[in-house]
Amino acid sequence: MTLVIRPAAPGDAATVLRFAKELAEFEREPDAVVTTEAMMHDALFGAEPMAEALIADVDGQAIGFAVFFHTFSTWTGRKGIWLDDLYVTPGARGSGAGKALLRALAGICLDRDCARFEWWVLDWNDPAIGFYRSIGAQPMDEWTTQRVTGEALTKLAGRD
Fold this sequence. Notes:
Blueprint (H helix, E strand, L loop, with lengths): L2 E5 L5 H14 L10 H9 L6 E7 L2 E13 L4 E11 L8 H15 L4 E4 L6 H9 L15 H7 L4
Parallel strand pairs: 4-5
Antiparallel strand pairs: 1-2, 2-3, 3-4
Helix pairs in contact: 1-2
């Protein structure tokens, strides 16, 4: 078994979308993914990419992915990396692919002089939380995510 972490290529858009859908199913949000393959391709490889992705391959077969993008901190004056999605197929969990993807992202952070590497984890996902603690990740317990979408977003923008 040979595990390789590589940057996603334009031909991987369908795989990234498939993994995003599998992750949404695992996270109890099976209908949340509205992205199309064309949208994913444009987001990752279009004229103005919004995100990047890494693919975990074992013997040439994709078994996981990480999608990430840059953030900025006024406190550090430097950019960071936000991990939007990390997923390894159920049959490949425990293979080291998740840790290898995070290790590759940590290396990208250092190579790009990023001050932070951050992500969310669902509070009921005990295996993931344990895994993240084992690699040195610390919770930001005093911070609560806020989100405005749909009709509330339109209203907030004064466009109702």
